[in-house]
């Protein structure tokens, strides 16, 4: 699929100032950031976020913007590299320079070797944290794969006692030119795969890669208020790049463990609080749990199941929030079980007494009876 115009992506005119470009990018980045978009729309938002990021990176650089304005996307394509390994329109211009060189009997060389470098792949790591750890933050250690120089071949990939040789196909440049008539196209060397070198006898320990995959311990700081589904980026801790290219990044995805008492909803937390039928009927003070300890709430006389009590500021302060959320306690009136015969007798006497008192003891009884009559009629 063809890339959209960078100016169109950011929603700015081609004569936009640097400040206008920056302002437009910030607005799009806030709107489409993966941490703000979860569920089915997360993939679409992530693509739009990457698209706007790429557009901003190109248009915020004066040199890249000039190349883009003159040559379009080909002018900033990192795979088209010019003399000295510079990115941009150099590779594209050089290919067409070869066309005109053939036409007028001129020959062009490629300075600086011209080996193509590739950025390493990003890695993903899932980390489980408790609700308390998410609320307060923590310092954690994780084990991730890493690459270290091979001790046997000292990193050159060749068997000890042998040497790495310059590729005879590309003469060490890492690329070859394919000519058809007037046209000359440059591409990676198929023999050395763009490295400019060949290894006649690869090292048996690393199989010619010059590096060995191992494990390393990484210190990770979990910020207070982080929520499940959010990601922490650790720059440069992904897969190593090829031919000296930069490494990728490591993304640590946070997953919340199920809590025995609380359920999180953004910055708010919820819990169910069971109370006896006596406390619900007569009222009283009870203790409820919070992330910081105990708190007391007053249960009014005649409290029903489903009654909700809100404790302000007893929730979680999110990573982007100025104030902590609230704690919601949902009352659950428990029906007594495994009654003795004496207790059964007392309940029957209580029920008889309540019936004699009429509907004043049953706030929902009359409305429920009326709704039943209306339904069956």
Give the key terms.
single chain, 377 residues, alpha+beta, 4-stranded mixed β-sheet, 27% helix
What percent of residues adopt helix (DSSP H or I)?
Answer: 25-40%
- Rg over CA atoms: 34 Å
What percentage of amino acids are in beta strands? Answer: 15-25%
The N- to C-terminal Cα distance equals 63 Å
According to DSSP, the number of beta strands is 15
Q: How would a crystallographer describe the biggest sheet?
A: 4 strands, mixed
Q: What is the arithmetic mean of pLDDT?
A: 81
Low-confidence stretches: 81-113
* Main structural class: alpha+beta
Layout of helices and strands, plus pairs?
Elements: H1 6-10, H2 18-32, H3 42-59, H4 62-71, H5 90-103, E1 123-129, H6 131-136, E2 138-149, E3 165-166, E4 175-180, E5 183-188, E6 197-198, E7 211-222, E8 231-234, E9 250-256, E10 263-265, E11 268-275, H7 277-282, E12 284-290, E13 293-299, E14 308-311, E15 327-333, H8 341-357, H9 365-376
Parallel strand pairs: 1-9, 11-15
Antiparallel strand pairs: 2-7, 3-6, 4-5, 8-9, 10-11, 12-13, 14-15
Helix pairs in contact: 2-3
Written overview of the protein:
Helices cover 27% and strands 25% of the residues. It has 377 residues and is α+β, with helices and mostly antiparallel strands. The protein has a 4-stranded mixed β-sheet with strand order 10-11-15-14. A 3-stranded mixed β-sheet has the order 1-9-8. Helix 2 runs antiparallel to helix 3 (42-59). The longest helix has 18 residues, at 42-59. It is elongated, with a radius of gyration of 34 Å. The protein starts with 5 loop residues before the first helix and ends with a helix.
